[in-house]
């Protein structure tokens, strides 16, 4: 089953944006995420609605961060993406007549609910500032072998 990589991709882009001195265009971000600029504009519009990014039009326009990295959690970004499914596991049938399947569904539903609550709580504890600090620590250990200067770097 295919995994949803939007959260990872958007976090990647936001961290690159944090390294920029000015706005970054949808075209540059699309290149970094290996997608179409229309997809980027749609994703970034959701982030803008949540107050995570700003957009400017015209020459010199593009996307910028609207909040300090320490004020944005991974959960904030996850929710701005529309709360995509966290797990690929699901029930075979939602309203089964079979008592065995009802028992299986009940057990899975409880476990998945608990796991989701734990994951969301943890996502709420990690800020973009913490990720940025991790990136800069890795850069220091790599002696500049990899850079964050351009959103084109993956």
From TrEMBL:
GO terms for molecular function: DNA-binding transcription factor activity. SUPFAM superfamilies: Winged helix' DNA-binding domain (SSF46785). It holds the Pfam family Rrf2. One of its GO terms (cellular component) is cytosol. It comes from Rhodoplanes roseus. Signal peptide: none annotated. This is Transcriptional regulator. PANTHER family: HTH-TYPE TRANSCRIPTIONAL REGULATOR YWGB-RELATED, WINGED HELIX-TURN-HELIX TRANSCRIPTIONAL REGULATOR, RRF2 FAMILY.
């Amino acid at each position: 089953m295919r995994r949803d990589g939007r959260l990872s991709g958007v976090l990647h882009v936001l961290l690159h944006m944090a390294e920029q001195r000015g706005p970054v265009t949808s075209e540059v971000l699309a290149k970094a995420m290996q997608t179409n600029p229309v997809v980027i504009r749609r994703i970034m519009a959701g982030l803008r609605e949540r107050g995570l990014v700003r957009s400017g039009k015209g020459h010199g326009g593009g996307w910028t961060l609207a909040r300090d990295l320490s004020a944005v959690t991974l959960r904030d970004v996850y929710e701005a993406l529309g709360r995509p499914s966290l797990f690929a596991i699901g029930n075979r049938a939602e309203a089964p007549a079979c008592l065995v399947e009802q028992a299986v569904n009940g057990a899975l539903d409880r476990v998945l609910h608990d796991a989701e609550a734990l994951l969301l709580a943890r996502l709420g504890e990690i800020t973009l500032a913490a990720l940025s600090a991790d990136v800069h620590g890795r850069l220091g250990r790599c002696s500049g072998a990899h850079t964050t200067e351009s959103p084109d770097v993956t």
